[in-house]
Every structure is written in structure tokens, then in C-alpha cells.
Amino acid sequence: MARRAQGTRKRKSRAGYMISAVAEIYHVHPQTLRLYERLGLLKPSRTQGNTRVYTDQDLERLDVILTLSRDMGVNLAGIEVVLNMRDKMMDMEKQVQAFVDFVREEMGRALANAPDSRLGNAIVRFRPARVSRVEK
Question: Are 69 and 82 part of one and the same domain?
């Protein structure tokens, strides 16, 4: 009995859902969820007892899969392409955000170290050249 309670606490701390609960919530057969996993569309984590545990991220992904298949009529191959593109876009968003953060940090550092206040406001540091008048 102590074992069962301990296992329940572990599941709750991970905030995961068993396959039967997910199937019931989303009105799909558990075999459909297993198929999605076999095809690589879903990747639920596993407990030590090898039971599938679906996280909130898995459920969000499942929601996208079901929207594509049920509402838009996209087949499984199309869903795979859409999900792969979506994953790549998310990765690119993270890279762009990291680059923006880096640029902001560098700009802040450059502005803080600028010797001339006029030059500190410039995007590119520029020192005016000395101009000499040449007569023809």
C-alpha cells in the first residue's frame, strides 16, 4: 500500500496523464495514441514500469495533431511535415531571440564604454574626419 501511494505522488509531481485518461479526454482510441507514438508524432515519457505518461506539452502537440487531422483533413504524412516545420520554426525563434539578446547586451556594453556622449548614441561609432578646404 505504501508503494502505491508513493507511485501516485511521483506521477502527480510530474503532472503526467496516463494513456487511458488522454484517450478519454480527446475522444481517441488508445491504439491511435500508440500509432502516433510509433510514427514519431508524439513522444510521451515512460515511468519505471514502462507506462506512457503524457505531459502538458504532449497534450498541446496532440491537440495540433487532432486539429490537423479532424478539422483540416490532413493525412499522417502531412501532419508529420507540419510538425517538423513547426519544431524547426520554434528552434529558429529561440535562435533569433538569443541573437537579439546578444545584440542588446553588446549594444549596452558598447554604449556604456563610449568615451564621447555623441558617439554613444550612434549605432556605428564614427569619428568625424578633419576636413581641409582645397581651392582650385
Answer: no
> 103 with 118, same domain?
yes
Whether residues 70 and 81 fall in one domain: no
- Taking only the tens of pLDDT, the chain with its 136 residues reads 343 344 443 444 457 999 999 999 999 999 999 999 999 999 999 989 999 999 999 999 999 999 999 999 999 999 999 999 999 999 999 999 999 999 999 888 877 776 655 555 666 666 667 767 777 6
Q: How far apart are CA 23 and CA 32, in angstroms?
A: 9
Residues 46, 108, single domain; the answer is no
CATH of the domain at 57: 1.10.1660.10
- Its pTM stands at 0.65
Domain boundary residue, one of 55, 74, 93: 74
Contact by Cβ (8 Å): 53, 18 = yes
